[in-house]
């Protein structure tokens, strides 16, 4: 911007001249040509027939999408990262490992069928191809490039392992635990596009053995660096809340939601405060090419893969690119990189606005910290230093029963020093859990919000109109938020709980325990805070300069008019 003061006298003289109708000081700003990016402008050449239809990889405006709204994999590929040396396990209904687009990248030694107890996780045949789910997810991650077949995987030189565990009439704790802990020194990333029923009534999560398997995975997997668990956040739409899914809301998983090809939320997307980031699924419009293009059963291809099922494998592929850039990344490093490099891009939702937390990180209740950016992630991963040791602190607890008013809200506060002065002091937050026990006449009408000392409000639970439960409630349920990432937890936390349905309800909050998880040092957060404060100060300085310019202009006008 030009400073008006420098040309002010010239402008005022022009204005006084009777031959001049109006004088305006011009300012410089940017304009860009509108239209589609030409895929040929990007130096990526693939002969796979569906590549140009994979808008989530390189979005040039295909299928009525928004140009530029993609995973930015082109930049990562151009830097030489394609997932080489990384293995992704697809925990699903099997993989068509004979598929010509998957066979060369299939890791047979790391694969297993826990439904049939054999090493061949091939999908069970049905006339309606019901068991195509895992094969489609596998193609998104590891479909081979430049072989004239289907499309291209996000990490097209990575290895994919099939872990068949979904195709059975029921699930058991042992099958889940065995799948999640299968070959943790060989499999780097586990991708899961499943969870409890997305019916808006269920509150469920991992059982004892699966929890232990997850804990062992993050602590012992990959030679102690930790297995990376990627989870689809759920397809229950506005009827459900992914904080009621104990897999997606776990601290040990990276929960991924989806956006459609024009940047809006998909109608089936669930929202919750535990979602870390987003990738892409199918478009809302009935364009036959707006789905996710990938491999299908029996050597076929499809353009119709969709849902958060499609989103999680895309994320697994991006993480594989980051791991190739730096094999020393821990499971926590991957979460930090996700927070720091995900972008708002052109994502938008009619209900949930973008906000900034106390250290300036931009987040959205539905999209998390934004869409994954593969280029930015591999560049940051390359020189990344492992994050400091993680500590856990009980920030405080209220265990006296408190009645929830039929109208209005119950507001409780906890003031914490975050264990300052002790070995487990938490100065910089990663995850925060509100462990809550509450009963009500209608669980689905409960609404729970929590506000941090730095003023960041997390929606822990939204209304679930189909949940009629009046007996079970929530029993020590760990509601989790990632929205306070990097904040200082010391100070007063506030919990608001109330009813939002049309009929009056009754309820009792029996427990609220605040669990803080984070580090005692995190230099990059300090830098983010400095940058954020600097931007705020600069914007205020510009405002003051504008006010000063206007004051000077008024004074000069007054002087000139007198003369």
From TrEMBL:
PROSITE patterns: P_HOMO_B, SUBTILASE, SUBTILASE_ASP, SUBTILASE_HIS, SUBTILASE_SER. Transmembrane segments: none annotated. Coiled coil: none annotated. Keywords: Cleavage on pair of basic residues, Disulfide bond, Glycoprotein, Hydrolase, Protease, Secreted, Serine protease, Signal, Zymogen. It is found in: Secreted. SUPFAM superfamilies: Galactose-binding domain-like, Subtilisin-like. This is Neuroendocrine convertase 2. The lineage of its organism: Eukaryota, Metazoa, Chordata, Craniata, Vertebrata. The gene is PCSK2.
């Amino acid at each position: 911007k030009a400073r008006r003061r420098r040309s002010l006298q010239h402008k005022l003289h022009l204005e006084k001249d009777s031959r001049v109708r109006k004088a305006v000081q011009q300012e410089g700003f940017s304009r860009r040509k509108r239209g589609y990016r030409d895929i040929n402008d990007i130096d990526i050449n693939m002969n796979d027939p569906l590549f140009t239809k994979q808008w989530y990889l390189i979005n040039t405006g295909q299928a009525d999408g928004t140009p530029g709204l993609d995973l930015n994999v082109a930049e990562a590929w151009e830097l030489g990262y394609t997932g080489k040396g990384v293995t992704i396990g697809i925990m699903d209904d099997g993989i068509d490992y004979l598929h010509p687009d998957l066979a060369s990248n299939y890791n047979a030694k790391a694969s297993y069928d826990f439904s049939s107890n054999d090493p061949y996780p091939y999908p069970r045949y049905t006339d309606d191809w019901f068991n195509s789910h895992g094969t489609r997810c596998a193609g998104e991650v590891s479909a081979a490039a430049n072989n004239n077949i289907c499309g291209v995987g996000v990490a097209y030189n990575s290895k994919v392992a099939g872990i068949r565990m979904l195709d059975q009439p029921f699930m058991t704790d042992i099958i889940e635990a065995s799948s999640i802990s299968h070959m943790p020194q060989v499999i780097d990333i586990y991708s899961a596009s499943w969870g409890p029923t997305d019916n808006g009534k269920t509150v469920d999560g991992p059982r004892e053995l699966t929890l232990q398997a997850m804990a062992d995975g993050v602590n012992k997997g990959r030679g102690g660096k930790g297995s990376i668990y990627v989870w689809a956040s759920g397809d229950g739409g506005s009827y459900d809340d992914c904080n009621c899914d104990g897999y997606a809301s776990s601290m040990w998983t990276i929960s991924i939601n989806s956006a459609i090809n024009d940047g809006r939320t998909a109608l089936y997307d669930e929202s919750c405060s535990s979602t870390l980031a987003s990738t892409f699924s199918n478009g809302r419009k009935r364009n036959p090419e707006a789905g996710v293009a990938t491999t299908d059963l029996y050597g076929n291809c499809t353009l119709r893969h969709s849902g958060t099922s499609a989103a999680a494998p895309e994320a697994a592929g991006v993480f594989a690119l980051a791991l190739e850039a730096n094999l020393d990344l821990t499971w926590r490093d991957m979460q930090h990189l996700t927070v720091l490099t995900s972008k708002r891009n052109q994502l938008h939702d009619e209900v949930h606005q973008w906000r900034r937390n106390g250290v300036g990180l931009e987040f959205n209740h539905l999209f998390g910290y934004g869409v994954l950016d593969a280029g930015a992630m591999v560049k940051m991963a390359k020189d990344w230093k492992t994050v400091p040791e993680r500590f856990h602190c009980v920030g405080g607890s209220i265990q006296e029963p408190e009645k929830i008013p039929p109208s209005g809200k119950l507001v409780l506060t906890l003031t914490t020093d975050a264990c300052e002065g002790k070995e487990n002091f938490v100065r910089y937050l990663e995850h925060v859990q509100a462990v809550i026990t509450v009963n009500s006449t209608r669980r689905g009408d409960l609404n729970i919000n929590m506000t941090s000392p730095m003023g960041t409000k997390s929606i822990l639970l939204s209304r679930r109109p189909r949940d009629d439960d009046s007996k079970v409630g929530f029993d020590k349920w760990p509601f989790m938020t990632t929205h306070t990432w990097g904040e200082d937890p010391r100070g007063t936390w506030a919990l608001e709980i109330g009813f939002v349905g049309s009929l009056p309800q009754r309820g009792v909050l029996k427990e609220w325990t605040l669990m803080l998880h984070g580090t005692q040092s995190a230099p990059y957060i300090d830098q983010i805070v400095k940058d954020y404060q600097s931007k705020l100060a600069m914007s205020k300085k510009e405002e003051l300069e504008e006010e000063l310019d206007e004051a000077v202009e008024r004074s000069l006008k007054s002087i000139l008019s007198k003369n």
